[in-house]
């Protein structure tokens, strides 16, 4: 299948580790010119050197705890360089814990980092997408939008808001050749998962191996996802081949979610 992604520009957020980094690699391998975003400049530079060198990839240092600064950095980048056909909204997940114990600050922080940042990025990149008659916004969320996950109270809450923001945006932007879709990772072998396993182990008194084994048993595939498996789904949604897929939640979870 020819994904026809040559000559496209992508802004891939949270792209120095895990799912975001694998996505940057997958898009670059399809001929996309990628601009990475994360907080740590050393990691951004290191990731840049790992991308295939046919195109001039780049990076922006930004922190998703500050949407105004993020917006101004990306706007400035676009005015000096180029706009983006593809936006992959992705950042670090909120801390775990039961929802009843969550501080108001935790909701505020997660809402800012996830919903507000996705929103300012969409507002910043959509004018170029409209002009190009081609836009793909892919939000990396969680299967918790279909089935809330135990011990991830703030995350469950904020992911629901992002999913509904995204669906609404899909309704508004479809007429311009722009699609907005959500990818819902199941347990995926990244730093984030290592943290989740540590927390489960500490809470249950089981070893980390036992905690990981129990998580794998809950998946029909009996294993964790590789970040590359998420990246492949995101890359397909970013391609011309996915032009009539709009406003969906796509679980990439080995069948773990117990609803359709
Ligand atoms: N892995 C899983 O099992 C799983 C399952 C369901 C959902 N998810 C969700 O999928 C998303 C990606 O997960 P992942 O496992 O790939 O995460 P990860 O390995 O922890 O990578 C997170 C990336 O986001 C960047 N980042 C973190 N905080 C940031 C901030 N405040 N501003 C800008 N960039 C920031 C990190 O770089 P810097 O630290 O340099 O900024 C890094 O590049 C998260 O929302 C996660 O909750 C993951």
TrEMBL record:
Family matches, as Pfam families: adh_short_C2
Domain of life of the source: Bacteria
CDD domains xref list: BKR_like_SDR_like
TM region(s), chain numbering: none
InterPro entries documented for this protein: NAD(P)-bd_dom_sf, SDR, SDR_fam
Gene3D superfamilies hit by this protein: NAD(P)-binding Rossmann-like Domain
Entry similarity comment: Belongs to the short-chain dehydrogenases/reductases (SDR) family.
PANTHER family: 3-OXOACYL-(ACYL-CARRIER-PROTEIN) REDUCTASE, NADPH-DEPENDENT REDUCTASE BACG
Name assigned to this protein: 3-oxoacyl-[acyl-carrier protein] reductase
Native species: Bizionia echini
């Amino acid at each position: 299948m020819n994904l026809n992604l040559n000559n496209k520009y992508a802004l891939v957020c949270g792209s120095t580790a895990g799912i975001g980094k694998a996505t940057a690699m997958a898009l670059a391998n399809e001929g996309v010119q990628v601009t990475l975003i994360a907080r740590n400049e050393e990691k951004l530079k290191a990731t840049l050197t790992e991308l295939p060198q046919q195109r001039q990839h780049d990076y922006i240092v930004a922190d998703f705890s500050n949407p105004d600064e993020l917006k101004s950095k990306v706007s400035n980048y676009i005015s000096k360089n180029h706009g983006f056909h593809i936006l992959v909204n992705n950042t670090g997940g909120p801390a775990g814990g039961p929802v009843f114990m969550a501080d108001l600050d935790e909701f505020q922080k997660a809402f800012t980092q996830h919903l507000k940042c996705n929103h300012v990025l969409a507002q910043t990149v959509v004018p170029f997408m409209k002009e190009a008659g081609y836009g793909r916004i892919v939000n990396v969320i969680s299967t918790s939008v279909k089935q809330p996950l135990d011990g991830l109270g703030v995350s469950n809450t904020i992911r629901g808001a992002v999913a509904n923001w995204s669906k609404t945006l899909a309704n508004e932007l479809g007429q311009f050749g722009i699609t907005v879709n959500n990818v819902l990772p199941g347990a995926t072998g990244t730093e984030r998962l290592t943290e989740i396993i540590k927390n489960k182990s500490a809470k249950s008194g089981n070893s980390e191996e036992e905690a990981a084994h129990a998580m794998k048993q809950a998946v029909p595939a009996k294993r964790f996802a590789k970040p590359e498996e998420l990246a492949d789904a995101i890359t397909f949604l970013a391609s011309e081949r996915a032009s009539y897929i709009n406003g969906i939640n796509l679980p990439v979870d080995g069948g773990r979610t117990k609803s359709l």
